[in-house]
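Milestone M4 deliverable, item 7.
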Amino acid sequence: MSAPESMGVEREKLLTRLHQHLERHPEEVTSEGRTRREWLALQLVEHYRPLRRFVRREIGRFVAFGVVPSGVLTDQDVTDMVLVRALQHWREAPERGLFRWLRRTARRVVRQLVEEERRRIEHERSLEEPVAYQGDEWPDQVVRLIDILADPTAQLPEDVILAEEAQRILDEALDRLPETWREVFLLKVDGWPDDQIAQAEGVSPEQVGRIVEASRAFLAELLRERRQELEA
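Output delivered:
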């Protein structure tokens, strides 16, 4: 099965799960309300991948600082909880800027789960030591990424962005971007068209283009400086 076919199957499975949730929790709503909930379910399917990535990053922050151990909260399970919470509050879901609303919902869910887990932990561990890189060489993916980011005509490389050994280095750089810039950039990496990103983030398509180019330049320069520091 090809990657697009596999993604299509996963979307169908997710949509089925969301519909099953709606059926298990019926509400006395107007036909307009039912239409609205169906619309939100479809939007959740479209936003699932970037939302899960956002949840993974949020969980990662708490793990990095030793608030919760690694593996206690999984991004898939937490994202499913965020989807349920979003469906429960479907009346609050905006048509424009939906992804920003989903991120706020995700933050609340993650923090609630972290606090519940923290209460069960007898003592906290500190993981605030800087990330250590083995040797003087960076992963080839990061070296390639610097070159690609510096070329405004180059396609944003999803395979490089998502390569496991480059994730930690890139995450450090992405954390320096304003949240909206970071999410716009990553949605562009996912292949979303500018008008769809604009709708999700509540900005204009023109702003999307400017944000992506500014983010590329910023990340390329930051990674270049970081590499020089490590090689000094």
